[in-house]
Amino acid sequence: MHTIRLHIEGEQALYNAFDPEGELLADDVKAYILDRMRERSPGEGVELELVTPGPIDQARAQRAFQRWVEEEEQLVRAERRRNMLQQLWMFGVGVLFVVVSLMLEAKVGDVWFTILSTIGAFSLWEASSIWIVQNPKLRLHKRVIDKLKHQFRLRFVSAE
C-alpha cells in the first residue's frame, strides 16, 4: 500500500476558500496528491493519511475527495473527446491540403504549391503531435484517476 501523508493545519486548509459549499479540495492539496501518486508502484493501492492537530469532519472530507475524483474523471473524458476531434480535424485538413497541392502542382506556381503543401504538412504534424505527446499523458492521468477511484483509502490521524 502506497501511503501519502498530508499534513494540514486545520480543516479549512483542506478546502478551496472560494467554494461557497465548502466541499471542493484546495488546488495545492490536489496537486500534492497527484504528484505523490507518481512515486507509487503500478500495482499498489493508495492510502491518504490526513494528519491534523484537531478534529476533522471525516464525512465531509470523504465527500470532497469523491467529488474531486469524479470531476477529474469527467475532465479526462472530455479532454480525450476533444483530443480525438482535434486530431481527426487536423489530419483531415492536412490530407486535404497535401492532395490539393499535389493536384495543382503543375497548374500553380512554386510559391502556391509550397504554401499549400506546408499547410498540409503542418496539419499532419499537429495531428501526430496530439497522438504521440498529448494522448499518452492523458492515458497516464486516467490511470492515476482510476487508481484513486477504485483503490483509494482515506485515513485520519491526529497530530497530537
Briefly say what this structure is:
With 160 residues, the chain is of the alpha/beta class. It has helices at residues 27-37, 58-103, 110-150; strands at 2-7, 46-52, 152-158. A 3-stranded parallel beta sheet has the order 1-2-3.
In words, what does this structure look like?
The protein has 160 residues and is α/β, with parallel strands linked by helices. The protein is 61% helix and 12% strand. The chain is built from three helices and three strands, in the order βαβααβ. Strands 1-2-3 form a three-stranded parallel sheet. α2 packs antiparallel against α3 (110-150). The radius of gyration is 24 Å and the shape is elongated.
Protein topology:
Elements: E1 2-7, H1 27-37, E2 46-52, H2 58-103, H3 110-150, E3 152-158
Parallel strand pairs: 1-2, 2-3
Key phrases:
3 strands, three-stranded parallel β-sheet, 160 residues, 12% strand, elongated, alpha/beta, single chain
Fraction of residues in H or I helices: 55-70%
Q: For the largest beta sheet, what order do the strands appear in spatially?
A: 1-2-3
Distance between the termini: 24 Å
Mean pLDDT: 87
State the major sheet.
3 strands, parallel
Q: What proportion of the residues form beta strands (DSSP E)? A: 5-15%
Number of strands: 3
What is the general shape? elongated
Low-confidence stretches: none
> Which oligomerization state do the chains in this entry correspond to?
single chain
> What class do helices, strands and sheet pairing give?
alpha/beta
* SSE order, one letter for each helix or strand: EHEHHE
How many H/I helical runs? 3
- Determine Rg (CA atoms, Å): 24 Å
